Amino acid sequence: MNVDTRKAELESWLAGALGQPPSRVAPASADASFRRYFRVWRDGQTWVAMDAPPGKEDLRPYLQVAGLLAATGVNVPRVLASDLERGFLLLTDLGNRQYLDALRAGEDADLLYRDALDALMRIQTGAGDAMSALPAYDAARLRQEMQLFPDWFLGRHLGIPPGSAESALLEEQFAVLVGAALEQPQVLVHRDYHSRNLMVCEDNPGVLDFQDACVGAATYDLVSLLKDCYIAWPRERVLGWLRQYRERAARAGMRFPGDERDFIRAFDLIGLQRHLKVLGIFCRLWYRDGKRGYLADLPLVLAYALEVTGAEPALAGLDRLLRERVVPAFSAAQAREGAAA
């Protein structure tokens, strides 16, 4: 029988943090990292405990960004107790209803996205000089992320590692995306601002999983939200929400180069950067970490990528690679791994 020694250690720590043992501790959620979350009950109250194994996760970025976001007025969990050495946090509970659940249940998407865009604007305009302590989403990081696409998606999942000519092509196309990202206004970027990390709650939304925040392109989090890897919306609806954001940003003093068409192009290009990365990450989560579920989300992510490359002349080479090499191999790879397509 497997004994969860980390959970037992966490429960012992919680007894001290709460002043008495909790009446119940049960899994709350897991994510794409080694972190685990548990809901904790005692005397009719609930909290959330984070287990971040030392050596695999570092709690300091979480604590830093939590404080920074709280100062902007965004609803994030408050830290009630911490043990950095053992990798434990006790947090306030923002509930268990994800945006994804609410949207799939047919709740008012316009209302939910209005709240999410309002919170995003507070994040982008309220961090001030404090965000200078965060790492930069610079050219090196953007390229490093996109390298996951040839390494894990092309090579490992599809079995078609790029040759020298294709690698050179990818480098050229990655340069287009890096340049477009660095031309945008640079703001605090959550990096995973999507329907699984936004909670429906009284002070809506509750914002989770922000520890990887950095300073980067202003439309990056918009892509995470509006070209969500777990739920898709018609293009015209996405553009409507984008226009709402642009109007808010202009009122807040944020200026994007060019006109509305240039703004939408910038959104799409940083979206492609993200989705190339995600294609690689979702495959790495299966082949390296044993998390199969993300393979079922690959078709949507690939569709997002094809939508952009098919409409952008500067990415014609990448578009050919996707349509001539990737698309023919994709269904067979998904079937081989038993992933829902």
Descriptive account of the structure:
With 341 residues, the chain is an alpha+beta fold. Helix content is 51%, strand content 13%. It is built from twelve helices and nine strands. The strands form three sheets. It has a five-stranded antiparallel sheet, sandwiched between helices. A hairpin with a 5-residue loop joins strand 1 (24-30) and strand 2. It is globular and about 65 Å long.
What's this entry about, in short?
This protein has helices spanning 5-18, 59-71, 99-104, 109-126, 139-146, 148-158, 164-183, 220-226, 235-251, 260-287, 298-309, 316-336, and strands spanning 24-30, 36-42, 45-51, 79-83, 88-92, 186-189, 198-199, 206-207, 214-217. It has 341 residues and is α+β, with helices and mostly antiparallel strands. The protein has two domains: 5-92, Phosphorylase Kinase, domain 1, CATH 3.30.200; 99-336, Aminoglycoside phosphotransferase (APH), C-terminal lobe (Aminoglycoside 3'-phosphotransferase, Chain: A, domain 2, Alpha-Beta Complex), CATH 3.90.1200.
Keywords:
two-stranded antiparallel ribbon; Phosphorylase Kinase, domain 1; 2 domains; Aminoglycoside 3'-phosphotransferase, Chain: A, domain 2; 12 helices; alpha+beta; single chain; 9 strands; 341 residues; five-stranded antiparallel sheet
Would you spell out the secondary-structure blueprint of this structure?
Elements: H1 5-18, E1 24-30, E2 36-42, E3 45-51, H2 59-71, E4 79-83, E5 88-92, H3 99-104, H4 109-126, H5 139-146, H6 148-158, H7 164-183, E6 186-189, E7 198-199, E8 206-207, E9 214-217, H8 220-226, H9 235-251, H10 260-287, H11 298-309, H12 316-336
Antiparallel strand pairs: 1-2, 2-3, 3-5, 4-5, 6-9, 7-8
Helix pairs in contact: 4-9, 5-7, 6-10, 7-10, 8-10, 10-11
